[in-house]
Amino acid sequence: MDKHFFGLTDTGKSRDNNEDSFIVKPLTNDQLILAAVIDGVGGYHGGEVAAGIATEQISMQFSDRPADPISQMIMAFRNTNEMIIAKKQKEADLSEMACVATMVVADIEHNQFYYAHVGDTRLYLLRDGSLIKISKDHSFVGFLEDSGRLDEAAAMQHPKRNEINKAIGFSDQIATDESYIETGQSPFLPGDLLVLCSDGLTDMVNRQDITSLLLQGDTLAKKAGNLIALANENGGRDNITVVLVQNNKKPQQVTATRPDFTQKVQVAGTENNGGIRLPENPEPATHAAPKRNYWFTALVILCLILLGSTVFLYLQNQEVTDTVSTLNSLPKQKVRNSQEQLLQDAFDHAVGDTLVLSDSIFKSPVLISDTLRFRKDTLYVIAKGIVLQADSGYRGAAITMRSPSRLLKLDSLQFKGFATAIAISDQALLLKNVTFTNCLIPVQNNIHFPDGKPANAELMKISPLKGNTPKTADSKNGAE
Prior knowledge:
Elements: E1 5-10, E2 20-28, E3 32-41, H1 46-61, H2 69-90, E4 98-107, E5 112-118, E6 122-127, E7 130-133, H3 140-146, H4 152-157, H5 173-176, E8 182-187, E9 193-197, H6 199-202, H7 207-214, H8 220-233, E10 240-246, H9 294-329, H10 338-348, E11 354-356, E12 366-368, E13 372-374, E14 378-382, E15 387-390, E16 397-401, E17 407-411, E18 414-416, E19 420-425, E20 428-432, E21 435-437, E22 441-446
Parallel strand pairs: 11-14, 12-15, 13-16, 14-17, 15-18, 16-19, 17-20, 18-21, 19-22
Antiparallel strand pairs: 1-10, 2-3, 3-4, 4-5, 5-8, 6-7, 6-9, 9-10
């Protein structure tokens, strides 16, 4: 292929078939480039079929130079959707198939690119050494990452990172909902590089490493090969596809110009820019300069400079001191580690009333530096022996229940080194095979009674289960 566009796909290390597909080809004299990455979903055979249909429909739609690139990209996606749905209705074994895709038309002649996108394939722009994510992931985890609620490392390890909420072939919504297909256009400057890829790359390689590899290698083929090799080295859990398109025009060099200090002489008898009329026959000044003691004047100026510098440095130092004092008085922002953030996110977005924590994702012990908060009305957490351990110097609660949470059941969870392991207030807590090690207060229950009115209650001590040795919690009564 030409040196300024290249595509490569690889099965990966965990799959034995490739459901990815790609297109990269010139449309008119290499000045207009069509590029697309398609990732099929829906079973061993279905994903490949869906990706094949998309590849065929896109190629048919762009057999020649497009009059309106974005309209034709939308039409290609909608035609693909119709073909996939029709195929699913005829063949039962393909009933779950669909695909996600990112498509670009790069107009190198006019320094523009146009794109259309559905799903979690991605489009990046590399400009001046910075990698910018253009497309948005149409998935729950992608939304959390794009909105800043989840960092890249946590998103790459999230258990729901591959669950998409938009795809071509899901339903007829793509034909009626104008927002279903993400589209746009942007400048494509000389030297810019577009990167289209499947999630097989971005689930395995972070943005910093992608940027580093794109800045290495002398050809696009070498860059693409390096990216796929690193994805495989990091696990290669999915098919991996990379398409690169570069604006190969030479970047313009801006020549610095020297300012023109030549003064323009105003014609006698005319007004200058300030509105002052110049005399027609200006007389040269003949006033004699008074005699001065130049040494004395220089000494006075030097003393004034030293005095001003001393005052300035004093005020500057005072300002820095006040700023540091103010910053030290502000409460420090707690920053969760990636495992801790991932755990909080799992609690916040649990589907249904049961959450099973995978010990392959949450590596024990999970260090806790800020309280984990439950807000679902009812939640049953099965932890499979996962250990929560207080981070160095942390004295807060490991877990607390916040409104509207009313019932929490914890199964096979371990707490280590907390001043307070679980803090609740007028809420129901059920424990099964829960262990507390070196926890000063295993469970703190703040129970509120009506002010000035009689109360009837039974506050019971909980006993350990027979055959187990965990320390169990006594209720600590009182108001918050």
